[in-house]
Amino acid sequence: MLTEGIFFDTLRAGLWVAVIVSVPILSVALITGLVIGLFQALTSIQEMTLTFVPKLAAIVIVFWFSMGFMTQTLVSFFHNQILPLIEGAS
Q1: 79 assigned to some structural domain
Q2: 25 with 63: CB under 8 angstroms?
Q3: Which of 4, 6, 37, 65 has the smallest CB count inside 10 Å?
Q4: 8 A C-beta contact, residue 30 and residue 12
């Protein structure tokens, strides 16, 4: 039986996994945006694609390199948290 405490504990763990998985991409997007913004402020270039294209490229590269970490983290969460709840319910 899924009690309220187990539900909220699983929800908390799931949100924490979501934070851990999203940190690499969000941090690279933040750093790239700051660097490009600083470059635009120093050179007075106000081109919109100058911020979009490098940030998108950096996000894609970091996503490509961190796919293994993200997959391992999500599979570990599924095996350690979700599967025991499913097995216990039947």
Answers
A1: yes
A2: yes
A3: 4
A4: no
Query: Which residues 6+ apart lie within 8 Å of 58 measured at CB?
Result: 28, 29, 32
pTM: 0.81
pLDDT for 89: 67
- How many whole angstroms separate alpha carbon 20 and alpha carbon 67? 13
Residue 90 has pLDDT above 70, yes or no: no
Tens digits of residue pLDDT in 9-47: 999 999 999 999 999 999 999 999 999 999 998 998 888
Range of the domain at 45: 18-89
User: Which pLDDT score is estimated for 36?
Assistant: 93
> Burial of 17 by CB count in 10 Å (0-12 exposed, 13-18 middle, 19+ buried)?
middle
Give the span between the Cα atoms of 52 and 7, in whole angstroms: 39
Integer CA distances (angstroms), 30 to 22, 58, 87, in order: 12, 10, 41
